[in-house]
Amino acid sequence: MTVIWTQDGIVENDPWTAADGEGAGLVSLAEALDHALDNTPLGVQLAPDDDVRDLAPILDRIAIVALSFPAFNDGRAFSQAALLRQRVGYGGELRAVGAVLIDQIPLMLRTGFDSFAVSHAPTVARLRDRRLPGIDLHYQPSVDKAAAGPGYSWRRRAAG
Length: 160
Known about the structure:
Layout: E1 3-6, E2 9-11, E3 26-27, H1 29-34, E4 42-46, E5 62-69, H2 76-88, E6 93-98, H3 105-110, E7 115-118, H4 121-128, H5 145-148
Parallel strand pairs: 3-4, 4-5, 5-6, 6-7
Antiparallel strand pairs: 1-2, 1-7
């Protein structure tokens, strides 16, 4: 069973999740771009090899972006999340789907994820009890400005 978790707790009635736990109403990047002229809000699920910059022309219509973690050791969605938040300017809901485990969630939060589709039973149990692993010190920047701390003068900035 897949549950949706946010920092507010378990989400009981998520409009983007079907009864079987799979994405309801989430479309692929190609489908989203094909319906660019429609005026309805979209939920888009990106594959790890999709270019997030392709969403820029329809960004105002996207209600949720789900980024896929096909395996625990595949971290491409971390980069996609940071790019969506920092370079593309996406401010809507960003969801992690796939192989989401408790050890990854603190870093996922730092890279901009808001919600998590979790099916791993021990992770679900820890999230229900609000027992996230604690990480007090960070050496990497954060998308979350409140948690980011002082800036990095050496870090390359996006032109803009």
